[in-house]
């Protein structure tokens, strides 16, 4: 089966086009109407994976309200996602210039390595996270239909309790999920976060929907996690009577017991973890 080459519009004008020269039918897959920013630039983060032979259109109007159409035919995509294209159309009249054109379907990882023996540059890591969230959130709102990233962005922050505070972190973790951003914080104890973020600590903890316990030694962290897990009602039997007596009485009482006491959490074996999912009430088969 031969798949149709795709066409990406930068303005909704046509829904189906035919290349009269080669007789190739183009299926429109996405498009958007956008304007330039204060610097005269525009950008469009498209989600379609392009292939050689696909076509991108830009449709603009000049000062006389005349429509100008340019075509960009994909000729080559290198291993870094840079697209080489052949431009056709009303080139002499067009004011649009493509400065950068990438199509890269593979996920990308950015590693922040901060030396633990010198904290002079530790603040850069927090600033970088803050700026990345700002740029992604802004571009998602301005340039995507659902105001969300096409690919989920995950911040995997090891030793997050030792990083300088990230500005407005409570707001970020509460609203960024709708933008396609997710935060994974790794801390040795809850007190590290509480010392860093103060009054915002409770809001940050509430926004963390999944909490995974691996091991801890701090007593308060063990108590907090034991309380998150919850408790259960157990039946306790007690026997009373005189020593050596044949007859005795047995009483039965209902008591509340933590599902895992703090001392039991401290004795988990290697490979055992506890996961608290506050808002997840169904499994993958949507069974409650």
UniProtKB/TrEMBL annotation:
Gene3D superfamilies: P-loop containing nucleotide triphosphate hydrolases. InterPro entries: P-loop_NTPase (IPR027417), T4SS-coupling_protein (IPR051539), TraG-D_C (IPR032689). It is a multi-pass membrane protein. Keywords: Cell membrane, Membrane, Transmembrane, Transmembrane helix. It is found in: Cell membrane. One of its GO terms (cellular component) is plasma membrane. Residues 152-269 form the TraD/TraG TraM recognition site domain. This is Conjugal transfer coupling protein TraG.
